[in-house]
Write a structure and sequence with these properties.
The chain has about 280 residues and is of the alpha+beta class. It contains nine helices and five strands; from the N terminus they run αααβαββαβααβαα. The relative contact order is 0.13.
């Protein structure tokens, strides 16, 4: 009897959720029909000149393979960049980078410095989080702090993922609320225990979805810029210690190989001479 009661209650919850979904679909369908009728009336009332203008606009939109302005505004894009700059004074450049990020409404998420001399900082890596709409302006300002010797940027469109997660969060919340209502209505201990187990599972999944939703919101609303600032004197020292090979280097390498080969040939001949005399 208890199992039948529990089954009936779960069935009622499923039907209620299905009813909500059907009601939402009907409302969307009705709204779509109303919009269609309004659009037809507007076309009938519009003058020929306006119709021609609308046709031109439609042709222009078809010719543009990219997103429209409205679509771009609603897009969710994760932006990241890596920027390496040589500067005269690393500490001053770090202060300037911090000022640029904060003036744009962002902040410094991480900072790590390396010193090879006691009296100066040779290299500092700074991770900046800035609003996505200020991303290009911030990069431009950061490039002005010194000489850029490396730059890489990436963009990932996660609009579909954001829409999917938002929809699943909404659905999961509705399911959790319905299970809580059923628990309030349950009178048998077995029903309460079964509903508690299902509710715990649904709540755990909801928490996971909410964490994923928050992560997407953070990464799409704030761009990440990893800035490496290197002392220009230290960078010049590294370049002098490990210069790029040139023609003279190639000739020197070839001559060294030739001398080494002749040396080993002479040694081999010298070792074989005693045997040649005996024979």
């Amino acid at each position: 009897m208890a199992r039948r009661t529990l089954a009936a209650m779960l069935l009622a919850a499923s039907l209620a959720l299905a009813g909500c979904g059907a009601g939402s679909s009907a409302e969307l369908s009705s709204a779509a029909d109303d919009k269609s009728v309004s659009r037809d009336n507007a076309k009938a009332a519009a003058p020929e000149g306006a119709a021609g203008s609308a046709a031109d606009d439609g042709a222009a939109e078809k010719g543009d393979p990219g997103r429209t302005g409205a679509a771009l505004e609603s897009a969710h894009i994760i932006r990241t960049a890596q920027l390496s700059v040589s500067v005269k004074d690393v500490d001053d450049a770090v202060s300037e980078a911090r000022r640029v990020a904060e003036s744009a409404g962002g902040y410094v998420g991480k900072e790590e410095s390396h010193s090879y001399d006691y009296d100066r900082t040779d290299e500092t890596e700074v991770v900046l989080r800035v609003p996505s709409e200020k991303y290009d302006a911030v990069l431009k300002d950061l490039k002005g702090t010194g000489r850029v010797y490396y730059h890489s940027a990436q963009a990932e469109d996660v609009t579909d993922e954001v829409v999917d997660v938002d929809s699943r969060v909404k659905s999961q919340r509705a399911g959790v609320e319905r299970l809580r209502e059923l628990m309030d209505e349950a009178t048998k201990l077995t029903d309460v225990v079964a509903l508690e187990g299902e509710l715990a599972s649904r709540e755990a999944e909801l928490e996971s979805l909410l964490a994923r939703q928050a992560s997407l919101e953070d990464r799409t609303s704030l761009a990440t810029v990893t800035l490496t600032l290197t002392d220009e004197d230290h960078l010049d020292e590294e370049n002098r210690e490990d210069p790029d090979p040139g023609i003279l280097d190639a000739l020197q390498g070839g001559w060294d190989a030739f001398v080494s080969t002749v040396h080993w040939i002479v040694l081999a001949v010298g070792a074989a001479l005693p045997f040649a005399v005996v024979l």
